[in-house]
Amino acid sequence: MTEKILITGATGNVGTEVVRNKRDKSSIRIAVLDVPKARTALGDDLDYVYFDFLKPETFANAFAGIDRVFLVRPPSLSNVQRDIAPALQAAWEAGVKQVVFLSLQGVEQNWITPHYKIEQLLRNSGMDWTFLRASFFMQNLSTTHREEIRESSEIVLPVGWAKTSFIDVRDIGAVAARVLGEEGHENRAYTLTGGETLDYFQAAETMSLILDRRIRYANPSAVGFIWRQIARGRPLGFTLVMTMLYTLTRFGNAAEVTSDVHTILQRPPIRFQQYVQDYRHCWT
């Protein structure tokens, strides 16, 4: 009998890749705030359900008959006990067996982050868990920071010369699909990175070569980065969390390279150069 999988965050960078990898191989249900928008993005051939972490009345329909859940924390929800815990309790009561959670590289040392608190909830939830502790997404450059690169030819992040083991979200989606579909990954934490480390000066150089124009790494201070993001209209809370994560990167927290992607997928991770080539249309 085919297991039923609930996918949250399905219209995001990683969630879209999880759906793409699972749609022809298993029975999946897409949990979203805006069903019509999700249908437009992902197609009409999927099972959609309205789901809101802040509305417990949406939990029963979402979790009914579900065996496994792919969990993505909505960026706007930071009070884990208030905003996330009730949904996890409902999942356990509905009979969910496993939750695969998209977490952060190095989160086990960063107890202040919401992701750390969610991991602790899951460890004590009664359900099996799998943590995908991902490094910084390559696709951050083609989504969150796309406009600055396209319009100003600048990467503006407060990281300095620190190295980052960038990972392509296509690899994260493939790993998530694998651990959602086979046994042996229960109660394990994987650190998902690319196969190399780059500083942002090197990343800008690679982009310059492939896009055939100079891309500059601006290397702002943390304060300068915050002011610039606020000026671009980004919410203060989101900006502060982003600044905290990039500050940790400045101290070397994102430099580790692991073999987990290669081990699970039995192939090397996608290289940064390939990512830029595949997404070059985003900056032109």
Write up this protein:
- With 284 residues, this protein is an alpha/beta fold.
- The chain has a domain at 4-135 and 167-192 and 256-269: 3-Layer(aba) Sandwich (Rossmann fold), CATH 3.40.50.720.
- It is 41% helix and 15% strand.
- It contains 13 helices and nine strands.
- Strands 3-2-1-4-5-6-8 form a seven-stranded parallel sheet, sandwiched between helices. Strands 7-9 form a two-stranded parallel sheet.
- Strand 2, helix 2 and strand 3 form a beta-alpha-beta unit.
- It is globular and about 55 Å long.
- The model has no long low-confidence stretch (mean pLDDT 94).
Short description:
The protein is 41% helix and 15% strand. The chain has 13 helices and 9 strands. The model has no long low-confidence stretch (mean pLDDT 94).
Structural descriptors:
alpha/beta; Rossmann fold; globular; single chain; seven-stranded parallel sheet; two-stranded parallel sheet
Order of helices and strands: EHEHEHEHHEHEHEHEHEHHHH
CATH class of the domain at 4-135 and 167-192 and 256-269: Alpha Beta
Gyration radius over CA? 19 Å
Strand order of the largest sheet: 3-2-1-4-5-6-8
Tally the helices. 13
Note the gap between the termini.
Answer: 47 Å
Low-confidence stretches: none
Largest sheet, in brief, is: 7 strands, parallel
CATH topology of the domain at 4-135 and 167-192 and 256-269: Rossmann fold
- Beta-strand portion reads 5-15%
- The secondary structure category is alpha/beta
Q: Which bin fits the share of residues in helices?
A: 40-55%
- The overall pLDDT, averaged over residues, is 94
CATH superfamily of the domain at 4-135 and 167-192 and 256-269: NAD(P)-binding Rossmann-like Domain
CATH architecture of the domain at 4-135 and 167-192 and 256-269: 3-Layer(aba) Sandwich
The total count of strands amounts to 9
The coarse silhouette is: globular
